[in-house]
Amino acid sequence: MEDLEVKMEGSEPQQTVRTPEPGLQDVFDRIKTQFPTCKVKKIMQTDEDIGKVSQATPVIAGRSLEFFIALLVKRSSEVARQLGCKRISGEVMKETILTDEKFDFLRENVCGEAADHGQEDQEQDSPQED
């Protein structure tokens, strides 16, 4: 993603705005579904540390989820094409999560065994001190 600097007038600090990759902008523009705001708010409030939630917060969180899912599906479709598949299966998504650095936070939860095996292989390949 490209970083664009936005200069604010006055004494406010400069902010960096991230713009989506060129191929993803049209995907984001085609999103027609929305996560129900009341459900997002309920999910957020299941955490005991979260008290009151402003009106805009669930809307922003829902939109962020839409963008995240769109990115995951886009990357999974690219992996499926590379593998010669016509459908995005669980295995294709698993491969996407294992290979794409943007989804590395999902490796432990979604691909627990595969992430553990990758670490074991690295440990076996490294020389051990006796």
Description:
The chain has 130 residues and is mainly α. The protein has one domain (22-125): Orthogonal Bundle (Histone, subunit A), CATH 1.10.20. The protein is built from six helices and two strands, in the order ββαααααα. The protein has helices at 22-29, 37-45, 56-83, 90-99, 107-110, 112-125, and strands at 2-6, 15-19. Strands 1-2 form a two-stranded antiparallel ribbon. A hairpin with an 8-residue loop joins β1 and β2 (15-19). α2 crosses α3 (56-83) and α3 (56-83) packs across α4 (90-99). It is globular, with a radius of gyration of 20 Å. The model is unreliable at 1-11 (pLDDT under 50).
How would you briefly describe this protein structure?
It contains six helices and two strands.
Task: Determine the CATH superfamily.
Answer: Histone, subunit A
Strand share of the residues?
Answer: 5-15%
Q: What distance separates the N and C termini?
A: 45 Å
**CATH fold description:** Histone, subunit A
Strand order of the largest sheet: 1-2
CATH architecture designation? Orthogonal Bundle
User: What is the helix content?
Assistant: 55-70%
Number of separate structural domains: 1
Give the tally of β-strands: 2
Overall 3D form: globular
Oligomeric category: single chain
Low-pLDDT residue spans = 1-11
Q: H/E order of the elements? A: EEHHHHHH
CATH class, please? Mainly Alpha
Give the helix tally. Answer: 6
Structural class by sheet pairing and helices: mainly alpha
Mean pLDDT: 76
Radius of gyration: 20 Å
Largest sheet features: 2 strands, antiparallel
Organism: Torulaspora delbrueckii
InterPro entries: CBFA_NFYB_domain, Histone-fold, Transcr_DNA_Rep_Reg
Keywords: Nucleus
GO molecular function, one term: TBP-class protein binding
